[in-house]
Amino acid sequence: MPFLGDAASAAFHTAVEAIEAASSVEVVVAVRPHARRWLAPHAGAGALIAIAMLAYVMFAPTEFDDWVIFVLPILAGLAGAMVVEVVGPVYRLLVPARHHDEHVREAAHATFYERRVHATHRRTGMLVFVALREHQVELVGDVALVDRVGQEQLDTWGDAIAAQIRHGGVPTAQALGKLAAELGTALPHHAGDANELADEVSSIHPRGLRSAS
Q1: Would you say residue 77 lies in a domain?
Q2: Which end of the chain is more exposed for a tag (fewer CB within 10 A), N or C?
Q3: How far apart are CA 49 and CA 163, in angstroms?
Q4: Average pLDDT for residues 58-78, to the nearest whole number?
Q5: CATH code for position 170
Q6: Domain range holding 68?
Q7: What is the DSSP string of 124-187?
Q8: Each residue of 110-160: pLDDT tens digit?
Q9: Average pLDDT of the chain, as a whole number
Q10: CA 31, 29, 173, 204: dihedral to nearest 10 degrees?
């Protein structure tokens, strides 16, 4: 089941509405299949598997034709690289946590400006950046929000939301919606607050995002 199906999209919309009704925070949700297309783990895994396959066909009791000795390691290496690409747990195992953090943080801040979350009147925008392959959520707040709640609190909230990614889009959205009360305390809603940013989830493929494996 895709992470961002109809039910999850509706749940995120409900969560954003709840936060914006309770507070002056303007929320944008961006869901991405991955933070960065980084080929180093693919190349490393592919090379190791290709070498292992070459050693096997060279020294196995069975004698292989020359073309098999040439082609089979290449195919095995390509298959290994593809496994890293499509199987999230393998990617997360091969990539050090510090690189996950760096990639997600950079992608989130770029999206923060791309989606103009920094351009609200009261500077209370908040981007919720969901990176599915990395199983991470980065909350990027504008200056007024960071001044009131602090980056450490935003990081704590982001980790709590990220813990629900493995369970699907609806639980992840519900975890986001639970921030409404605390955000309302930090930045209360004002009668004149306008909805300055779109409430729909920003995604590269709104109906095609793979499940969070």
Answers
A1: yes
A2: N
A3: 32
A4: 80
A5: 3.10.310.50
A6: 40-94
A7: -EEEEEEETTTTEEEEEE-HHHHHHH-HHHHHHHHHHHHTTGGG-HHHHHHHHHTTHHHHHHHS
A8: 999 999 999 888 899 999 999 998 899 999 999 999 999 999 999 999 999
A9: 84
A10: -30
Task: Say what the pLDDT of residue 169 is.
Answer: 95
3-state secondary structure 52-101: HHHHHHHHCCCCCCHHHHHHHHHHHHHHHHHHHHHCHHHHHHHCCHHHHH
pLDDT of residue 207: 42
CA distance 206 to 137: 18
Supply the DSSP symbol for 192: T
Residues forming a β-bridge with 28: 127
pLDDT tens per residue across span 49-59? 778 887 878 88
Contact in structure between 88 and 133 (CB atoms under 8 Å)? yes
Using CA atoms of 33, 36, 41, 47 in order, give the dihedral in degrees to the nearest 10.
90
pTM as predicted:
0.76
pLDDT over 80 (residue 76): no
| DSSP class per residue in 107-128 | HHHHHHHHTTGGG-TTS-EEEE
Q: What's the number of domains the chain is made of?
A: 2
